[in-house]
């Protein structure tokens, strides 16, 4: 774990004095790690996610996915019943039966993730062992992996971290100098970044996860990690343990941060400053042109971020530094200082960061502060609107391409739209 | 273990939430891990509720498990009582908490909370959402009426009020059109001179539950939710309850008669406005009878309808489909296992075997095999129908946001019948349009994905999707124009072929579709062309039946002749 902070210091991002952090415990209005499956199963088109859990898990998945995906989902739930709990059915046999049925229906699947849940963990169902056993039957056609998406162990986006970490032992070793971008991004964002890296002469470049789970990137002592998402801390630490070096940079949300993010990689490849400027300047100009319109709508507006996706700190930095918004409170489910060191350095000294949640007390603070916009989960948005607050539901931020220059304005628009809507409606 | 992609019902604690969220002055404390708060969004997003469900979650984590989760429960209970001052407190647990056995209900009872505390046992690994809702309503009602239970054998006190009154039992949050059904039934009762004593649980407070015995009878409006409670009230307080579900014109008339009998009122004035068997606009308070008789509705005759829903709405919909719309019900089923018997009986009356399952994949398979022209179902069947390209209307929970409309749209009572007529007809291809589609199949704009012209957006999407197939069809037409013309002229209407092909099959008797094995007969180009003239919604079935026939007869290549031989065979 110390490796990453060492790297962070080595690229000379000043580690600031500890910001005041309000730590709270109580009711948390956040999803569990299973929810990550909703985007992971779309990103990796040859992977299937089988949750081993309860009816609640299955219900959560379809509620989070909104039952709006008309294609057959590449995820499902093996629902535990009384028979399984009473030991009347052998969990191993049952799981084998379900996996085989599933894979018969879906011959296109090459990677099957067994995803642990709260109940499977409480009854100590060993999914690692189940995956090993299934692999002896199913390899080489299908590889079975396991990870935990349970709410007792993980929050919302940590599910992606756990899924990626489970893939790391499979990554082939490589001595080659290469860039590995870590964290799920939309295909369009991946393509844009690839073009950028090509133009800068940075390469070879891999993205983790790739569009196919079977296309595993390699890793080794000359692998340089550039982080696209702030919630993959365990994955990054496991990659560092495989010899990789992590770059410290803000996350590519907003134009300035995207430049800093690309610059971190460019420095490693000794990219000529003039070339860097030639490549990025038109992109920055285009991004700023797009952002200007929204800056006038957002500047000076008071922002309250409730904890949800772990994107809150980078978002706060973008909305404050590039859009001129005033930060009232920046909530985060948990604070992984190593992962957000470069972000924290860019936040104003006075920022109130809250970690964890006591939702009732936090709502009291929202009511007291009267923010212009509150970023919160779907369960809270309409009730807050009914109280007169303008809200933005945060789940859209993990389902929308928001990284990079050409998405910077889209990201700003996500926050400007609710304000625009409120201004339009004469109701 | 049971493999599930989508589920019809949530876990039982979501049922408990539907009761709590429907009421005022009730709070639910749920012992549950992080993540279970997802259920809040069902209420605030699908039904657009403007307040959070009155639920406090303990949100325990792994690190709490070694320590004292019981204290976490107690803290959550006392915080919730302090903050929300409920008049009654429900205490339950979700699936994971059930495994760690903290018994939050017992803990809560020992805390000296000065309002009724109702512990809920919600077995997550064997029961589901509707059961949980029914159980919660029952336990809450029992607890609140505990001190009013008469000694066994006590006769019911004589009616005090001048006007008879009834309780409406069962409407909840996240039910199907509950808000408007309650308004419609209240209006109907008003016409009969019957007051509504209490609506339970929608909009009710604990005080309203305590007033239940003041009514003369109960209306068991949503049996999945209210039957356990109404039966208990009948056993314990001697309060009778209704048995007819007022969905459809005929059922609503029967409901009026049943209610009048229970209330001891004269229904003749209301029923006098009902003229069963008469064909005119004022033959009923509902327009459905006249609209259904109107000649433009002829095209609805014998439309093949597949119904899958909760038991109450499935059974009622099947009756309306057959008796009031003139459809043919080709499949009937439910996910409500508790009411499977009712659905089996109803299915038998349609000559069908009921499909009782909560496996979405099984329902999808049954629909594909039955090849209906209309599916009446839930959000899941909307999903299935979209994939299969079949028209669909939603008639039951589980619902999505578009099934909680802003406008007044009950499905119960006379107005409900009007809503049903419109809702079920809307997704279908209109009569004349359907004829034209069948007669001029070769028209380049009449492709397989053509949808009703009054659904412009869908048509646009379909146009794009169908560009390739229609191009292929026009190539075919160019290759053999003369032949096509001759064949088309000599043909009986395409529908006749398919009707005969599918006539002797119901979803339950259909053999599994032959898979693409080596023994599958091959379609000759002319056979394939002929098949394309059959309407797309039954073409799959015609194809399968012809292939099965060819296989049985040992025919290797399917020609036009084989197709008609198969038609004759199955039409026998």
CATH superfamily of the largest domain in chain A: Nitrogenase molybdenum iron protein domain
- The number of helical elements of chain B comes to 25
CATH topology category name of the largest domain in chain B: Rossmann fold
Overall mean pLDDT score of chain B?
85
Oligomer: heterodimer
Residue ranges of chain A: pLDDT <50 for 5 or more in a row?
1-15
What Rg of chain B is obtained from the alpha carbons, in whole angstroms? 28 Å
Write down the CATH topology of the largest domain in chain A: Rossmann fold
Radius of gyration of chain A: 22 Å
In this structure, how is the largest beta sheet of chain A organized?
Answer: 6 strands, parallel
As a percent range, the share of helical residues of chain A equals 40-55%
The average pLDDT value of chain A, as a whole number, equals 92
């Amino acid at each position: 774990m110390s490796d990453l902070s060492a790297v962070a210091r080595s690229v000379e991002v000043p580690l600031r004095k500890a910001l005041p952090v309000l730590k709270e415990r109580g009711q948390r209005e956040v999803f569990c790690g299973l929810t990550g499956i909703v985007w992971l199963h779309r990103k990796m088109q040859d992977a299937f996610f089988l949750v081993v859990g309860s009816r609640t898990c299955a219900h959560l998945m379809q509620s989070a996915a909104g039952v709006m995906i008309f294609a057959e989902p590449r995820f499902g739930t093996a629902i535990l019943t009384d028979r399984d709990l009473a030991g009347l059915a052998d969990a191993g046999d049952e799981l084998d039966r379900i996996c085989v049925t599933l894979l018969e229906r879906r011959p296109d699947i090459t990677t099957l993730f067994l995803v642990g849940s709260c109940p499977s963990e409480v009854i100590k169902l060993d999914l690692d062992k189940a995956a090993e056993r299934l692999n002896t039957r199913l390899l080489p056609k299908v590889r079975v992996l396991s990870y935990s998406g349970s709410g007792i162990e993980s929050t919302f986006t940590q599910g992606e971290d756990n899924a990626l970490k489970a893939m790391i032992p499979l990554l082939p070793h490589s001595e080659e100098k290469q860039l590995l971008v870590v964290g799920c991004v939309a295909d369009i964002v991946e393509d844009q970044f690839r073009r950028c890296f090509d133009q800068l002469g940075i390469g070879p470049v891999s993205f983790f996860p790739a569009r196919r789970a079977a296309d595993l990137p390699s890793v080794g002592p000359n692998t340089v990690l550039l982080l696209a998402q702030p919630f993959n801390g365990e994955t990054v630490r496991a990659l560092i343990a495989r010899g990789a070096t992590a770059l410290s940079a803000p996350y590519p949300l907003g134009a300035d941060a995207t430049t800093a993010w690309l610059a971190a990689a460019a420095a490693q490849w000794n990219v000529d400053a003039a070339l860097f400027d030639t490549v990025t300047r038109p992109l920055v100009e285009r991004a700023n042109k797009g952002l200007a319109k929204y800056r006038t709508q957002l500047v000076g507006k008071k922002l309250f971020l409730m904890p949800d996706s772990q994107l809150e700190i980078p978002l706060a930095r973008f909305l404050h530094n590039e859009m001129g918004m005033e930060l009232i409170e920046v909530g985060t489910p948990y604070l992984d200082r190593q992962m957000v060191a470069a972000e924290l350095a860019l936040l104003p000294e006075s920022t109130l960061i809250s970690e964890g949640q006591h939702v009732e007390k936090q709502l009291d603070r929202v009511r007291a502060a009267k923010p212009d916009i509150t970023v919160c989960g779907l369960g809270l948005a309409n009730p807050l609107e009914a109280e007169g607050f303008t809200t933005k539901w945060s789940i859209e931020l993990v389902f929308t391409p928001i990284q990079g220059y050409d998405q910077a304005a889209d990201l700003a628009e996500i926050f400007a739209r609710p304000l625009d809507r409120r201004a339009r409606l004469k109701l | 273990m049971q493999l599930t992609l989508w589920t019809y019902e949530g876990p039982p604690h979501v049922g408990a939430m539907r009761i709590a969220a429907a009421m005022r002055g009730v709070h639910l404390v749920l012992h549950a891990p992080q993540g279970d708060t997802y259920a809040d969004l069902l209420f605030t997003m699908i039904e657009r509720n403007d307040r959070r469900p009155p639920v406090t979650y303990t949100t325990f984590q792994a690190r709490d498990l070694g320590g004292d989760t019981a204290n976490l429960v107690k803290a959550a209970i006392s915080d919730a009582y302090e903050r929300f001052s409920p008049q009654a407190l429900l205490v339950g647990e979700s699936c994971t908490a059930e495994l760690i056995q903290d018994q939050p209900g017992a803990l809560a009872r020992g805390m000296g909370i000065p309002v009724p505390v109702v512990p809920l046992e919600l077995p997550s690994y064997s029961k589901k959402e509707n059961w949980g809702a029914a159980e919660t309503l029952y336990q809450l009602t029992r607890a609140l009426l505990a001190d009013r239970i008469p000694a066994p054998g006590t006769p019911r006190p004589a009616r005090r009020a001048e006007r008879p009154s009834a309780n409406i039992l069962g409407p909840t949050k996240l039910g199907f059109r509950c808000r408007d059904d309650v308004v419609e039934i209240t209006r109907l009762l008003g016409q009969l001179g019957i007051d509504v004593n209490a609506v339970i649980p929608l909009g009710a407070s604990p005080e309203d539950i305590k007033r239940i015995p003041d009514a003369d009878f109960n209306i068991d409006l949503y049996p999945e939710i209210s039957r356990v409670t109404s039966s208990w009230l009948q056993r314990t307080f001697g309060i009778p309850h209704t048995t007819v579900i007022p969905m459809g014109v005929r059922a609503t008339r029967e409901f009026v008669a049943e209610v009048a009998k229970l209330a001891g009122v004269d229904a003749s004035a209301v029923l006098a406005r009902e003229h069963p068997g008469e064909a005119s606009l004022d033959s009923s308070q509902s327009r459905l009878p006249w609209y259904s008789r109107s000649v433009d509705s002829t095209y609805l005759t014998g439309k093949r309808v597949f119904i899958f829903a909760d038991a109450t709405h499935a059974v009622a919909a099947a009756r309306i489909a057959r008796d009031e719309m003139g459809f043919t019900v080709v499949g009937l089923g439910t996910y409500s296992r508790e009411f499977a018997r009712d659905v089996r009986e109803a299915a038998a009356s349609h000559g069908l075997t009921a499909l009782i399952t909560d496996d979405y994949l099984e329902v999808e398979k049954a629909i594909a095999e039955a090849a209906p022209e209309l599916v009446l179902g839930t959000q899941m069947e909307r999903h299935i129908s979209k994939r299969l390209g079949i028209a669909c209307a939603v008639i039951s929970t589980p619902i999505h946001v578009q099934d909680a409309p802003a406008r007044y749209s009950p499905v119960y009572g006379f107005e409900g019948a009007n809503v049903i007529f419109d809702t079920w007809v809307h997704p279908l291809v209109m009569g004349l349009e359907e004829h034209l589609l069948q007669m001029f199949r070769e028209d380049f704009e009449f492709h397989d994905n053509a949808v009703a012209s009054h659904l412009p957006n869908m048509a646009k999407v379909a146009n794009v999707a169908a560009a390739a197939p229609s191009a292929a069809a026009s190539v075919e037409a160019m290759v053999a124009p003369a032949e096509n013309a001759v064949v088309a002229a000599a043909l009986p209407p395409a529908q006749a072929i398919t009707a005969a092909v599918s006539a002797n099959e119901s979803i339950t008797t259909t053999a599994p579709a032959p898979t693409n094995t080596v023994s599958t007969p091959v379609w000759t180009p002319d056979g394939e062309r002929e098949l394309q003239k059959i309407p797309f919604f039954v073409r799959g079935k015609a194809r399968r039946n012809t292939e099965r026939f060819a296989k049985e007869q040992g025919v290797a290549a399917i020609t036009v002749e084989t197709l008609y031989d198969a038609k004759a065979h199955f039409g026998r």
